[in-house]
Amino acid sequence: MADPMKIRANAMGDKVIVKVLMSHEMETGQRKDSAGKTIPAWFIQQVSATHNGKTVLNAQWGPAVSKNPFLEFRFSGGKAGDKVQVTWTDNKGEKRTDEATVG
Amino acid sequence: MKRWLIALFLPLMAAMPAFAQDGDATVKEIEKYRQALADGNPAELWEARGEDLWKKKRGPKNASLEQCDLGMGAGKVKGAYAALPRYFEDTDKVEDLESRLVTCMVMLQGFSYDQARKNPFGGPDVKSDMEALVAYVTSASRGIKMNVALKHPKEKEAFEIGKKMFFHRGGPHDFACATCHASDKQRIRLQDLPNLTKQEPAQRAYTSWPAYRVSQGELRSFQWRLFDCFRQQRFPELVFTSQGSVALTLYLAKNANGGVFNAPSIKR
Question: Which of B256, B150, B247 is nearest to B208 (CA)?
C-alpha cells in the first residue's frame, strides 16, 4: 500500500492554506530501464480535497508532475479545528486518502 | 518567472560553462530555486516512514528500536546525530549513525548483520529502510549545534585515519578528496565544491546532509554522499558502514563542530 501523505493545513485570516506531500513514483511511461525495456506509466491522475465533507478542490494530473509531488492550495471559509481530507487516485486505480485538522 | 526559466535551463547551462561566468547572479538564482523547493521537502515522507520503523516491532526478536542507545542513553533520539560518530563501549568501536543502527537491529531486533545492512540506499523498486531511519533520527537534531567529542583514544585514532583518507591520492586519476574539496571557489559544472578543510564551508556542507535529491527522487544519507564521492573519485566501492567510512565521517563531522545542524535538507 502507498505511504501516507503528509498534510499541513493552517488558517490564515479567512483562508486555509493546505500543503500536501504525496509519496508516489510518478513514472511517465517514457523512460526505459537498464535493459532497454519501457517502464510502464504509473502516475496520479485525480486529486481531490474536501473541507468538512465539501469538495474544495478537484484536479486532473498527468505524467508531467514530479515524483513525490507537493501540492499547495488555499480555500476560504475554513477555521481551526476543521477537517481537511485529500484523496489521490492513480492510473492503476490505486487510491489513498489522508486527513488533517486545520491548525 | 525568471526563477522557473533558470530551473528549466539548469541541465543546459551545465553543458555551457561560459554561460555561467557571471557566477554570483547565477548562484543566487539557484539559491532561490532551492528555497522554493524547501517548503515542500519530500524528506518529510522519509522522516514519517522512519519514525514508524523506529517504533515498530520487527525482526526475529519482535522488538522495536525504541531502546536503541545512539549515545545519549537508551531511546534518546533528540540531539543524538549532532554528537555522532562516537565511541560505544558495548561494541568497543567508533560508530556513525548508520553503523549504530545496524548494531541496534542486530542486538535488539535479532536481525543478522547482513540483513541489517541490506538496501542501504533506495533506488528504482527498492525502498531503503535504512535511509528512512536515518531521516527520522537526523531530523531530531535540527537546530542543535554539532558537538563531536574526540575524547576517547579510538575517536582520536578514527579522526587521524579519516584525515589521512581525505588527503590520500590514488586511483586512475590520482585524485584525493582534497583535490576537489580543499580549495576555495572550485566548482564542477555549476556545482560549487565546498572547501571541507575550512570551518565555515565544512559546517555548511555537513549540516545539510542527509538531503532529498530532487534529481534522484530519493533521500540520501551521509554514507551515500561518501559512497558517491568515492565513485566520482574512481576509488574502489566504499563498503557501507566500513571502518573507513566511519573514520572519514568523523573527520568531516568534527570539522563541522559548532555549526547548527539543519537537515534533512533538499538539494538539486
Answer: B256
Inside any domain, residue A1: no
Task: For A5, name the nearest residue in chain B, comparing CA atoms only.
Answer: B45
Distance of CA A44 to the CA centre of its chain: 8
- Residue A102 grid cell: 486545520
B42 and chain A in contact, CB less than 8 A? yes
Domain B43-267 annotated CATH 2.60.40.2000? no
Residues of B in contact with A3 (CB under 8 A): 45, 48-49
Catalytic residue list contains B177: no
How many A×B Cβ pairs under 8 Å?
31
Instruction: Answer whether B249's CB lies under 8 Å from B193's CB.
Output: no
Structural domain boundaries enclosing A73: 6-101
CATH value at residue A97:
2.60.40.10
A20 to chain B: nearest residue by CA?
Answer: B40
Task: Please say if the pLDDT value at position B18 is more than 50.
Answer: no
Task: Give chain B's length.
Answer: 268
Number of domains in chain A: 1
Binning pLDDT at 50, 70 and 90, where does residue B34 land? confident
- Report yes or no: B268 at the A interface, CB cutoff 8 Å: no
| Under 8 Å between Cβ of B134 and B101 | yes
pLDDT grade for A34, boundaries at 50, 70 and 90: confident
Q: Residue B16's pLDDT is what?
A: 38
Q: Where are the domains of chain B?
A: 1-13+23-39, 43-267
Q: pTM of this prediction?
A: 0.85
Q: From the CA of B212, how many Å to the nearest CA of chain A?
A: 11
ipTM (interface pTM): 0.77
